């Protein structure tokens, strides 16, 4: 909106370019202009259309200082009200680039800042290597950039700063590439070059490339720890079960006839039957005993535990002739 004669009015977009936008932003106190928006992009205004066919060179301090058709002289409607996008970043440096006239911030006509003035770049020898450098300088992804020649995003105005630009593709700034002397060219604005970058910001790509591997490593480590603890716990339970089972294994098992019914860990005479228990793998003969009689336990001295002195203990005499079977808890007879 522009104020004249105490009334606010709009400006028509006819002939509007970034130089006009730059003057508006400067007048408002901003360091520069990013782009402009035509066709009532920000909505239609009301009242007078004060200016039309504005043609600034970009150096003016006020929009009213630029050439135009005259106050309140236009052939426009409010559907052609123009808008601008100003830059809020710090001071522009020599060699900075921007994209102008595209449908988004990551595409547009390439303009470069030099000696305090924004100018365009000629499309001679400008290809995707140069486009990659422009995208990198602006902080966009360098994946599959596209160079657009022939004023694809509209013709610029003012100085054509660069011509015959030749980059390797690895440079950080377009001004670091080989090119003609600043302002030396054989081009017209019909050859202004444009660039289309990938819309994924380079900082986002870096953040993703760093974060994803870290998250993956964390998941792998946590999974490995969980598996280790699970199998360790399972191993402890198995060991406990085996120890418990060994403790509970009975020490005496009864044999019927000469056939062992279950394995045992020791052999004792049975006080209530005419059979004896046996050690695993052994099937000794039964030894008859007087009903209701049981040998003294434990045997005294060199006494043999069997009633017939000629019979041999299934395992043979113990060293020294003394029989020393394990002492079960609770006295004799041992628990059945």
How would you describe this protein?
Helix content is 21%, strand content 19%. The protein has three helices and 13 strands, in the order ββαββββββαβββαββ. The longest helix is centred in the C-terminal third of the chain and has 47 residues. The protein is elongated. The N and C termini lie far apart (109 Å).
List keywords for this structure.
336 residues; alpha+beta; 6-stranded mixed β-sheet; 3-stranded mixed β-sheet; 3 helices
Topology:
Elements: E1 2-4, E2 7-11, H1 18-28, E3 32-37, E4 49-51, E5 83-87, E6 97-101, E7 107-114, E8 117-121, H2 128-138, E9 140-148, E10 160-162, E11 194-201, H3 202-248, E12 255-256, E13 259-260
Parallel strand pairs: 2-4, 8-10
Antiparallel strand pairs: 1-2, 3-5, 6-7, 7-8, 7-11, 9-11, 12-13
* Series of secondary-structure elements, N-terminal to C-terminal: EEHEEEEEEHEEEHEE
Q: What does the overall shape look like?
A: elongated
Distance between the termini: 109 Å
The biggest beta sheet is recorded as:
6 strands, mixed
- Could you report the average pLDDT, rounded to the nearest whole number? 75
Question: What kind of oligomer do you see?
Answer: single chain
Determine the strand fraction and express it as a percent band: 15-25%
Helix content: 10-25%
Structural class: alpha+beta
**Beta-strand segment tally:** 13
Summarize the structure.
The protein is an alpha+beta fold. The protein has helices spanning 18-28, 128-138, 202-248; strands at residues 2-4, 7-11, 32-37, 49-51, 83-87, 97-101, 107-114, 117-121, 140-148, 160-162, 194-201, 255-256, 259-260.
């Amino acid at each position: 909106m522009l104020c004249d004669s105490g009334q606010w009015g709009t400006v028509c977009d006819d002939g509007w370019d970034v130089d006009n936008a730059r003057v508006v932003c400067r007048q408002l106190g901003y360091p520069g202009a990013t782009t402009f928006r035509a066709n009532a992009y920000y909505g239609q205004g009301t009242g007078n259309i004060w200016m039309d066919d504005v043609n600034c060179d970009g150096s003016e301090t006020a929009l009213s200082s630029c050439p135009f058709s005259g106050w309140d002289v236009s052939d426009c409607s409010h559907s052609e009200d123009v808008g601008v996008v100003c830059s809020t970043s710090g001071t522009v440096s020599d060699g900075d680039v921007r994209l102008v006239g595209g449908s988004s911030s990551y595409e547009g006509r390439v303009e470069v800042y030099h000696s305090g003035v924004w100018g365009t770049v000629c499309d001679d020898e400008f290809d995707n290597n140069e486009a990659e450098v422009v995208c990198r300088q602006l902080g966009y992804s360098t994946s599959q950039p596209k160079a657009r020649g022939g004023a694809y995003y509209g013709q610029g105005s003012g100085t054509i700063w660069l011509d015959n630009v030749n980059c390797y593709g690895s440079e950080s700034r377009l001004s670091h590439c080989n090119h003609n002397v600043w302002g030396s060219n054989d081009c017209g604005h019909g050859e202004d070059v444009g660039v289309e970058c990938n819309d994924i910001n380079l900082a986002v790509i870096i953040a993703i490339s760093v974060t994803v591997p870290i998250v993956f490593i964390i998941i792998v480590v946590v999974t490995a720890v969980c598996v280790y603890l699970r199998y360790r716990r399972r191993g402890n339970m198995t060991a406990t079960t085996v120890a418990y089972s060994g403790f509970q294994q009975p020490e005496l098992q009864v044999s019927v006839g000469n056939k062992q019914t279950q394995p045992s860990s020791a052999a004792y005479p049975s006080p209530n039957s005419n059979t004896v228990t046996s050690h695993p793998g052994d099937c000794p003969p039964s030894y008859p005993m007087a009903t209701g009689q049981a040998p003294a336990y434990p045997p005294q001295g060199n006494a043999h535990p069997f009633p017939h002195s000629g019979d041999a203990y299934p395992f043979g005499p113990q060293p020294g002739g003394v029989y020393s079977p394990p002492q079960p808890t609770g006295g004799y007879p041992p628990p059945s």
